[in-house]
Amino acid sequence: MFKFDKLVFGDAGWGDEFLIATLMTLLVSILSMGLGLFLAIITVWAKIIQNRITRFIGNFYTTVIRGVPELLVIYLIFFGGNAVVMSIAKVFGYNKYIELNALTIATIAIAVISATYSSEVLRASYLAISKGQIEAAKALGMNKFSIFFKVISPQVIRHALPGIGNVWQITLKDTSLISVTGLVEIMRQSRISSNVEHSPLTFLITAAILYLCLTTISGRVFKTLEVNYSKGFST
Amino acid sequence: MIEFLNSIQNSLIYKNFFLVLSGLDNTILLLLISLPVGFVLALLFALGRVSKIALLSRTIASYIFVIRGTPLLVQIYLIYFGLGSVKFIRESFLWYALKEPFWCGVIALTINTVAYGAEIFRGGIQSIEKSQVESGLSLGFGKFLLLRKIILPIAIRKVLPSYGNELILMVKATSLVSLTTYMEMTGIARKIMAKTFAPVEAFIAAGILYLFLNFLMVQFVKYLEWKYNPHLRLNN
Known about the structure:
The complex is a heterodimer. By secondary structure, chain A is mainly α. Chain A is built from eight helices and no strands. Chain B has twelve helices and no strands. Chain B has one domain (10-229): MetI-like fold, CATH 1.10.3720.10. The A-B interface holds A 1, 63-64, 67-72, 75-76, 78-80, 83, 173-174, 176-177, 179-180, 187, 190-191, 194, 198-201, 204-205, 207-208, 211-212, 215-216 and B 66, 68-75, 77-78, 81-87, 168, 172-176, 178-179, 186, 189-190, 193, 197, 199-200, 203, 206-207, 210-211, 214-215.
């Protein structure tokens, strides 16, 4: 039933494979979280500027992606991503076959999903900043960039950290869906190993424990960050 | 005009839409069992979590920790592939349920939603003011009556918005059951993608149906909020 002795490192076991798979999960999570935050900032910007079209696009994007299962989004980007990239390349006069590698597709797919959650968090924390502060900054003669970097960003980060921590946990768990694209992360590795060793229970429990470790450790990291960023604000 | 209608009828999206629609009942079936069972169990677990029996509270806390710390996909695979590989389960009565991808999906979804729901209800129960419980006690309410008349109604009403979120997450989570060969909407959409190499059309067909399901869910939660918050209605 259990073959935990197969988890040793080296050629006899799957230990090193699982280590690489864990690093891959972390890599995809971090990359897509970063790209997701970038997309989220654009989405928030599209929603808060006084422009009906951009606001509609922003709302449409978040509503649709949050109302559709993550797996479906991943399928769409996995199966349809190549065609989109090739048709864009065609516009620029490049007619050869392009194939995106699994990591790129995985990162983009998870980022598109994660950005919708992040954008809600960021928007709420942006709206929590009182207008008076931005007006005060303007009165001091600060330009747009210094207002953004010196007044808005530090406060948004402080307000948003707990929410971003939640999004990070969701993103980390969503990376398990990427296994359907064939990228070897924890989930895929556990399926491969269990197919070879005929012991699914062993490797699925291993995967569960690895995910549990990742979520717990990153939860601690976010707690520390929160304490760090709320210095001077008694909580 | 007729030509236009014909061209719509022959279009891939139109055909896919009805193909995917045939999987709607399978998706709803998953929800119809796992959501009510999950709701009742989540309430019980939340009560156990706030109870003064340390062992019970601690056990439920660790259950919630494990389930919320691992992806749903791992849980589904553990039940479908993992439990199926154990010999004495294959020989026991459990196998009648566990050999069907449908029941594996139902069990996994229920286990998952119970953990998230219990945490939500715990927040609701703990946010009840002490004075309300005390006034119930001073009226001579027993433990059970207190629970039924004061604690649960107030707690559930308070957490309706966040529980509604969880319900929507559950609608989306049913798509993962397709990975255990269960043919619900995502499974059919995936099959169409593999067959026609037209992912966008299949995605749109399935996406519209999921959006519609979630829309219904949002309206349902809104109705519940309206019904159970009579004191917050603007004009009554």
